[in-house]
Amino acid sequence: MRENPAGATKNGGIRLLFDRHLRLEFRGAKITTDAGLLAVRELDEMMGLTDMATDLIVEGRVGKNIQHQIPGLLRQSVYARLAGYEDTNDHERLSRDPAMRAVIGKRALERTAVSSGTVSRFETDILTQEQNIDALATLNSAWVSKIVSRSLAKKVVLDIDSSESPVHGNQEGSAYNGFFESTCYHPLFCFNNYGDCEGAVLRSGNVHSADGWRKFLEPIVKRYREMDKKLYLRGDDAFASPDIYEYLEGNSILYAIRLKANNNLYQKIEHLMTRPVGRPSRKPKVFFHSFSYRAGSWKKSRRVIAKVELHIDELFPRIGFIVTNMTSSPEAVVHFYNHRSTCEQYIKEGKYALTWTRLSCARFSSNQVRLALFVLAYNLGNFLRRFALPKEVSHWSLTSIQLKLVKIGAKIISHSRMTIFQMAEVAVPEKLFRSMLSKIHRLGRACARAPALGL
Questions:
Q1: Residue 320 falls inside a structural domain
Q2: Phi, psi torsion values for 265, nearest 5 degrees
């Protein structure tokens, strides 16, 4: 068989020089690398998630020749991000991908999914309208509320934190941030103790970490008040403000917020600063102390917890302070606060699994929409982790879900009445996939029996 220098054969295949018994064939319309999105679509359908967009997002298109409705457009934008495609340019290929066509709907499976041009107009024209930016936030809140309502737990812990989204151009609203030492956006996030992202707000790069906290937090608090959940909040020292304390106390929210150290606080723990006499222990010596403290800007005294750690190989002790209105023991308050690190882990998952720092549009409103879509994709992946993964793989990170589950390869065989996905059994065998679908279906039946949540 004659071959050209690139290795192509007469029948269109490609030969490899290291083993001439191997031949490659590219069958884009018959092969997919994202067959795991079918499980995501099943969860979406059972929970009725993307269908909520019909009543929230304002349709700007007119005419009778509209092929894809709002839920399908949103589904493709969100699913593509969950699968690791962060740019609208990627939809040029995704529109022909069998898995993407299948999850969008029957009409897309028969033709094509949404083209890159239509996705771009959807994200930069329709969704950037002010009412639709608000609608995306409302949609995310409705998703989280529906999921959290499944829990019988009476309390919800909120973690609030800011993050850095570096930019590499002249994006509107970006600015230099001295703390991060980069030109960036400075978004604000809130997560609950289940790992769901309660919301995110995009801000200019040079604002304070707590800027806009009240407007951001109030709708979340109101929503949980209506659900009759007891609220707790954790935050780092950027949120150590008397205005925040007073707001939380006025709404009966228990909190633990880190305090920046100062000389007055050090004086309160002077008796703990001296190392014990005798041979030092190989293990760190840890001491806790609770005391009443009133800063100059505070209207009243509040409880402060101090933690002092003495390490054998360190000259100075490690000291931390937490202001709280909780009545638990000092050790319990510190233990509770230390779980705030899970919030930082969730932000890292969003950064590295979904690349939600990819805010490369010129307009600020377009980047607001991009961040909102990334948050929806993150939550969809987290819902899948919480409710669909069997126990043996429940520890998977979003990166593992993306690489092992979403990225399942499959061969597609089409008949007149049936389309078959022949799934590759590598990281996810058939038994595991069946178990996932069983859990999703049980969840769907439970949701069908539960009363509907208002938007």
A1: yes
A2: -70, -40
